[in-house]
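Assemble and predict.
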Amino acid sequence: MKALSQKRRHPLAAIALLLMGLLLTGGLYAVATTVNEAKASTAEFTATDTQEGEKLFEANCATCHGMGASGTQDGPSLVGVGAAAVDFQVGTGRMPMQMNGPQAYKKPAQFNDTQTHQLAAYVASLGPGPAIPAEELLDEKGNAAEGGELFRVNCAMCHNAAAAGGALTRGKFAPALADVSGKHIYEAMVTGPQNMPVFNDSNISPEGKRDIITFLKQIEANGSPGGADLGALGPVSEGLFVWIAGLGVIIAFTIWLTSRTS
Amino acid sequence: MSAASTAEAPAYVANTKVGRFTDFVDERVGGSGILREFGRKVFPDHWSFMFGEVALYSFVILLMSGTFLTFFFDPSMAETHYAGSYTPLKNVEMSVAYSSSLDISFDVRGGLFMRQVHHWAALLFVASVAVHMLRVFFTGAFRKPREMNWVVGGVLLILAMAAGFTGYSLPDDLLSGNGLRIIDGVIKSIPVIGTYISFFLFGGEFPGTVIISRLYTLHILLVPALILLMIVVHLFMVVVHKHTQYPGPGRNDRNVVGYPLGPVYAAKAGGFFFIVFGVIALMAGFFTINPIWNYGPYDPSPVSAGTQPDWYIGWVDGALRLMPGVISGFHFEYIIFGHVLTLNVLLPALVPAGLVFTVLFTYPWIERWITKDNREHHVLDRPRNAPTRTAIGMAGFTFYCVMWAAASSDLIATHFHVALNDVTYWLRALFFIGPVIAFVVTKRVALALQRKDREIALHGRETGRIVRLPHGEFIEVHAPLDEYKRYKLVGFESLAPLPAQPNEHGVVTRKENRRAKLSRWFFEDRVAPATPAELEAGHGHHEAVEAGEGQKTLSH
């Protein structure tokens, strides 16, 4: 102890102290962030998956994302995005991108499930990232009411309270969530594709995510108790409907009533 | 008949039981006199005259369905946990108002249907009021002696919007709560008194615990009572003024050509009520409206994307959406003596609506002042025969529609795959130039139609039959119009600019000069109807051809 205190005026003491501080904060940060991350369980991927995935990646993705997925001017690096991001982007057809634009559109998937799995294996092998969610989180048996509250607080401002989607700035948009699989909804929450923020596990717990998926699937299954939902777009489609269909039919009747049988 | 017989022939006894009973009642209330007077009231027949009826019937349907809803609705903002049958909201904390609205939707037999009847009828009510007003404006039916009834109609439009808005907020769902928050913001942007009004209205800081029950009182008591009062005044004036009629042979400002109310017209009108009811019932049965269960209970923290008001408030919401916060470094928000003046909320919320309603209410007097026309008008103008008025109307309509469209700017962006920002920029431009374009185009179209009418009146209708004359000339055969059709094309009044006139002191005042300028602007572009002399000349031309060809119908 005395030796240490004697060296406190040593010319390198300040540097040593700085180093120790940096190591401590860096280490704590690394621990904290990995705690919040859904970890990639590379266990389910075989070495062949990874190898096949690399081949597919080099043929289809490397033009923009670069060899080794290290990123180019046209596309970001994919190191550490995790298997979930690949499964979402490729599985919904958003990647490979059809064209440059404010946002990638959903389209028929270009790769089949095996190829998507192989691509995910390859990208997951590059660095730890969010994994494809486990089946028990997607069983749609959570609490729909809690999920609804989480949805209204966290998601409705972009996706609309009825999950009908909404506009963002400059051509970007939040898509409607009907017909989106629970797995893709979960992956979107943990990876934050396009303009979506990441909802990590400390923000919305895996159980909360399960509740949200339950809620979305339940309102989808419930359908529209009041008749045709007119796109679930709220007062705009209702107004259009009353002006065009409602008044249109009434005008037809007024013409009939006032016509003469001359 | 029996009413008249009471004095002279008290011994009159009807033959049947029903007759005796009717006579008993009639002797005491004098119904037959009233019936005779009203039964003979003549109404002209035209489909465009029926929108007022649609509005009236929608209102009756609103009263009936609304009464049903009051049996089950509880306007309390007390907190409760939902225990009804809609599982996605099970045990969610919400107000009693929202919970009872959900109960009406899911647990009261026929409740959802009645809710949807009420809401669709409300949308149709305001829409038919609006179309009715457009018809009245574009046909010049607001002219003397109906100026005051036009104002009553304008008040009814505002009351209809008020009824709609207060009702829209009652379920206390997220969507309507977002709308209420916008109203709160607008109220608070009023300088000096805004915050006080907001606190009085909401009984404290937004959202408070009283607003729903206050809106409820307004919605089921005050506003409908005022609407009913105004409807009575409106219809009373219709009876006093008699109905207007479209121009036609034998129709003038001293008569009304049409059918008597009883029995045919009364039967038609009564049947029409059931048609309107049927259309609303079909809409309510097959198309969902305001699915409050989708929106969730109101909570000031979440704001849903795609939040819009019902269509009739949309234009004010659109104006708010169009207003820029900052224009190239110029800010609209000031702090004066510690008070915030937020013009970018105050201006769009109050100025366009103020402008539209001021012009709407004063227009009959503006036109009256310009034309110095103090005569009674019971024959309507065809819109084309008043080009400047029609153009002004279309400019106003376009102004309204741009704001209306702006209220759905986000849906335009997502559904047509365009950028929200671009939609806003275009609509901002259209906000200013749209009415001007509409004015010019409408006026030109109206004048062109008038020229076409004149042409047809003078030369007849083109038949599309091409005839080659013996000397080789080709002519198209024109069929002359019959007298009735021609009357419609020539029997209108075409006002000319009225130059400035000196007053009783022989002075042309500055105001009179301004009026003369406006009169010139109003009437300088005019296509006069074909005069009898011109028609005669036109016929002379026909006859020359006819004489030459020996064919009676030929003309060109």
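The CA atoms of residues 384 and 446 of chain B lie 4 Å apart.
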